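Subject: Predicted fold for RNase H type-1 domain-containing protein, 182 residues

User T.R. writes:
Posting the sequence so we have a shared reference for the thread.
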Amino acid sequence: MVLVLLWQWWSARNKANAGGKLATIAEVCSSVTYHVKEFQKLQKPPKVPKPAKTAKWSVPPDHSYKINIDGAFLAESNSGGWGFMIRDQTGSVLEAGAGNIQWAADALKTEALAAMAGVQRAAYWGMPKIILQTDAANLGSAITFGTWDNSPGGNIFMQIREFLVDNFVSYEVKGPVLNEFL
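User M.O. replies:
I've generated the structure tokens; pasting them so everyone works from the same file.
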């Protein structure tokens, strides 16, 4: 900063000696502030946003299977897709599935369809204990607590809940608010 001040002072003095207008103290100070900030920009590397922290997949307890699900929704076309993956305690994929949805009411419905497909396949293979993992907090709440039963799409949440009770010895629904994130 001192070097910039001396440089600006010297430049202002030279201009005045050459017949130019004598710079005021405020003009010199303003010029010094401007140049110091410009030099500081050159010295500091630009701040690069840190990538979002990604959570790692957690292993289910012994003799349990984890069903990770996800849905996608395109509001422009009211369409979307769903997918699920069933893994054991070693992380080995035992079953996976995906599908298109020609018409979907909303993102929550696509997540619910993924959940239904995943639990149906787990029941088909006779898996007695499952953990249904979703990244949709609303879905976890809708299945676990029945908070969305009276919504327009509430019937699928009730179907999933009844299917879980009827087909599994034990089950747990996990979501970002309920327990852990994928």
